[in-house]
Specification:
The chain is an alpha+beta fold. The chain contains two helices and nine strands, in the order H-H-E-E-E-E-E-E-E-E-E. The radius of gyration is 19 Å and the shape is globular.
Length: 155
């Protein structure tokens, strides 16, 4: 009876470990690096090939859409992350529900760096000169068009 209980617990642990999604720093850096678009070495095209986050949707979970404009009827304001290295990006805000569409001017406070903590779960620390925020990588999905959707949870 004791052996059956041990086998059951071992089987349950293996199944639960297989069910966990494990994402690595290397995998995420590769995805971010693929979205870098610099026509010249000293030029960064803000907004082009950027990651879009719907700012209108509250909560601690955010979805980042790679290099595409997700047409969401309930979303007017987006935060865009434009990567210029695999761990550095510029953030700006866009409002598409007014004519003409508006985008914020980039300042020194809009330049961010990502620090990766690769442990049991991949954690991103996103920081600039003023603040630092921590996010857990909850999911990475590759869509039919080969673009990615990354789900982060603010911790």
């Amino acid at each position: 009876m004791k052996n059956v209980l041990i086998l059951f617990l071992l089987f349950f642990n293996v199944i639960s470990l297989l069910g966990q999604n494990r994402y690595s720093k290397k995998e995420l850096e590769k995805i971010f690096k693929k979205s870098i678009l610099q026509p010249k070495k000293s030029t960064i095209s803000i907004g082009e090939n950027s990651w879009k986050i719907c700012q209108s949707k509250g909560g601690s979970e955010i979805n980042m859409f790679e290099n595409s404009f997700e047409s969401q009827s309930d979303c007017c304001k987006y935060i865009e992350w434009t990567f210029y290295t695999k761990n550095k990006f510029i953030s700006n805000q866009t409002n598409v529900c007014i004519e003409p569409a508006l985008s914020t001017v980039t300042t020194a406070n809009d330049w961010y760096e990502i620090e990766y903590i690769d442990g049991e779960n991949l954690v991103l620390i996103i920081k600039n000169k003023i603040k630092s925020e921590k996010y857990l990588v909850k999911g990475i999905k590759k869509r039919k068009d080969n673009l990615h959707v990354i789900t982060l949870v603010k911790t």
